[in-house]
């Protein structure tokens, strides 16, 4: 009996700490399996990165979580409750910022935000406060009378965000919110997401910009072929792969023999030389840079710039999912 009680307590604790809990989710389109017994656990109060190549199942998973798609097997719980197509009270606690800007060109910035907020908040006085707070949050107060067609790409993205968060949801899903915006707008959007999270909002964040995910996400799930293939913090994911560091050395006279010798070093995974720069990918080791430079000096190669960097999340993504192009 003691074990049974412990198991029940553990399950209750898991439900209490999970903003989104997906177990064994299966979604088929005929013979094609879009989700293959996917498990996913987003903790309350975190920024959770959901990554995967095109066609990996990310969008299908999100649509199933939101009960916009039916699925063949598994379960979905959001904010502690089972999610169904008719879970209207639960859906009011969720915000979605889609990749494609979804606003009405006939309405002003303020009217757009008010309209989308009205889908969740019926009381006009309360909604007016929410709209004003959303305008301030995304920095669009001075553009409130503008129509979307008059906004720059970055401002339009910020309007898209305001429409998705104006009702002040507990969970927000951001689907590539920084596509095709300038660095200043991207920085403003990322800082805004972090402020929302600091105020207690749970965030699911999808993006193909690995540096963004590494910058803001607490944990990251990489999926492919409808399955989870890696999960952890950015550093934990980096520790899973073979690359320990990448060394770049500027040199104009590296011989083929010297390049072959570099490739034979114990920690070297691969090495490439384009006539100007030697790029060496190494496994984990304490003396990789010393070993490479020592060999170049023995070969009397001239050495210009030298750089060494730790693996990035992009390295992780490519090693885990492969480098082949996806549709």
UniProtKB/TrEMBL annotation:
The keyword ATP-binding applies. Keywords: ATP-binding, Hydrolase, Nucleotide-binding. Residues 20-250 form the ABC transporter domain. InterPro entries: AAA+_ATPase, ABC_transporter-like_ATP-bd, P-loop_NTPase. Its EC number is 3.6.3.25. GO terms for molecular function: ATP binding; ATP hydrolysis activity. PROSITE patterns: ABC_TRANSPORTER_2. It is an enzyme of class 3 (hydrolase). PANTHER family: LINEARMYCIN RESISTANCE ATP-BINDING PROTEIN LNRL. This is ABC transporter.
């Amino acid at each position: 009996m003691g074990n049974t009680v412990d198991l029940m307590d553990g399950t209750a604790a898991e439900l209490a700490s999970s903003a989104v809990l997906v177990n064994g989710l299966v979604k088929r389109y005929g013979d094609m399996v879009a989700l293959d017994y996917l498990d996913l656990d987003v903790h309350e109060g975190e920024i959770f990165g959901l990554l995967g190549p095109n066609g990996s199942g990310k969008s299908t998973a999100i649509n199933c979580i939101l009960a916009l798609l039916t699925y063949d097997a598994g379960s979905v719980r959001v904010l502690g409750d089972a999610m169904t197509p008719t879970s209207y009270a639960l859906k009011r606690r969720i915000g979605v910022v889609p990749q494609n800007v979804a606003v009405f060109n006939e309405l002003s910035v303020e009217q757009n935000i008010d309209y989308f907020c009205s889908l969740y908040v019926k009381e006009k006085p309360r909604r007016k406060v929410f709209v004003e707070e959303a305008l301030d949050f995304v920095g669009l107060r001075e553009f409130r009378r503008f129509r979307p067609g008059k906004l720059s790409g970055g401002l339009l993205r910020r309007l898209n965000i305001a429409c998705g968060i104006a009702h002040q949801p507990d969970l927000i899903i951001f689907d590539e919110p920084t596509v095709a915006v300038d660095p200043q707008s991207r920085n403003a959007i990322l800082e805004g997401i972090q402020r929302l999270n600091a105020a207690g909002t749970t965030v699911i964040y999808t993006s193909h910009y690995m540096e963004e995910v590494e910058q803001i996400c607490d944990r990251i799930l990489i999926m492919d072929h409808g399955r989870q293939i890696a999960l952890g913090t950015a550093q934990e994911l980096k520790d899973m792969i073979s690359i320990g560091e990448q060394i770049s050395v500027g040199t104009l006279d590296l011989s083929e023999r010297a390049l072959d010798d570099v490739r034979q070093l114990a920690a070297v995974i691969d090495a490439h030389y384009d006539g100007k720069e030697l790029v060496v990918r190494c496994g984990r080791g304490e003396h990789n840079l010393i070993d490479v430079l020592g060999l170049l000096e023995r070969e009397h190669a001239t050495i210009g710039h030298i750089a060494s960097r730790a693996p990035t999340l992009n390295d992780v993504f490519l090693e885990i999912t492969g480098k082949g192009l996806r549709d």
